[in-house]
Design goal:
about 500 residues; alpha+beta; Rossmann fold; Dna Ligase, domain 1; D-amino Acid Aminotransferase, Chain A, domain 1; 4 domains; five-stranded parallel sheet; about 35% helix; globular; binds ligand MV4
Amino acid sequence: MKKVLIANRGEIALRVMRSCKEMGIATVAVFSEADRSAPFVLYADEAICIGPPPAAESYLQGNKIIEAAKKLKVDGIHPGYGFLSENSDFAEKVEKEGITFIGPSAKAMEVMGSKLAAKAAVKKYNIPMVPGTDEAIDDVSEAKNIAGKIGFPILIKASAGGGGKGMRIVEKTSDFEEQMKLAVSEATSAFGDGSVFIEKYVASPRHIEIQVLADKHGNIIYLFERECSIQRRHQKVIEEAPSTVLNSKIREQMGKCAVDVAKACDYVGAGTVEFLLDEKKNFYFLEMNTRLQVEHPVTEMITGIDLVKEQIKIAKGEKLSFEQKDLKMSGHAIEVRVYAEDPVNNFLPDIGTLQTYRRPQGIGVRVDDGFEEGMEIPIYYDPMLAKLITHGSNRNEAISRMIRAIDEYEISGVETTLPFCKFALQHKAFVSGNFDTHFIQNYFTPDKLKSADKLEEEIAALVASSVFLERKTPAFSNNEVNHQKSKWKTNRLVE
Ligand code: MV4
């Protein structure tokens, strides 16, 4: 593998290119007209424009991307996450052209892309699943019957669904018919597939996922878990590894189940097996994501393994260079996603120019991003600006390091979710580890952030008035002029 094309943009394109560079592999960026001067384009050895800004006309144009790959004679294509990363047709076309798709087989992607097919595939293994139907339901009265047996509340899910789309909670029999019709029509319009099934609704679950790596020689290992329960409308906000609720016994049980799920679909590459964990710490297999995930860095931090390098080595046909028993967790890692969204205004995407953009630094801090100061945030794509990851020797250190890093981060020009992340990290439910997927719904209201804003305003007013009153003796000595704009300058200057 001498040259890899990255069929993606932003932070993940850059992330993948960095590992390629370390492996001596040349990189090709494909970019839309909106990303012409983006860091990932400048970082690549070669770059090729594939179309106008809308993703449907560029990053989702599989044929254009394959054309570019052939023109530049690349050996492999890395799809990143989102866009074409879980599109089995794309993977198949890439392979047909004699280019290596850095990911699982089209077949595995197809099976895991359907929740019902996934359930069927893992049936021969002893994988715990939420009580429910393992086939699509179309008969309302039969479905009602089954729902009654399972017991309310139940959840209607779309087989083709993902990210919570096409999901409906039903509290009682009399609501069933209406909710089922809604779920079917939602699934039909969103996925072109109206198949739905039902499950017992797990009321207060935690979302825990297991990272797996599988090579082409039948070796499969798990790289422990990531806890992703802090989400807002199915968008993850904070992820960490390890989870505070797993002990080594449950971790091993879940790990072995995840390996079996990978076996069940002849999985190759890096994948993630999602589980729900209920209050009694029973776990249930939900689905498998057949891509590198946004939150993969927390696993890298606690295992010391570069997952992108492993993906490439596996795609080249290499055997995994370690066994399960060689793997150890070291310390604790947390990731927060920094979105250009206004948390006090219902998380509305906040577009604009990054007037100030200064990254936090120092021990245990990693920033995966794809922007530079002065850049405009394109409106066409996901508003995630960066992933901020901290690693510490234990959870408390990772948390205080994250709060320190958030305080160092300087972003102006757009509102970001950083203050919201700080709020969550300081909340006693988070600190104690006693939380579930309803954390934000249960504890967050915009006024929680407004009060912090007010405090800052007051400080600013005080500083301004003191500068005004002491005009003759400047508040800052001349050699510190450069820092005056900085938000760090909240100390008392002793001269
Ligand atoms: C569930 C559930 C409760 N009970 N299944 C949401 C997205 C999809 N991956 C599965 N999801 C859920 N499935 C049963 N039987 C609750 C959720 C769920 C959820 C899961 C993980 C993280 C956040 C969530 C938020 C709402 C609902």
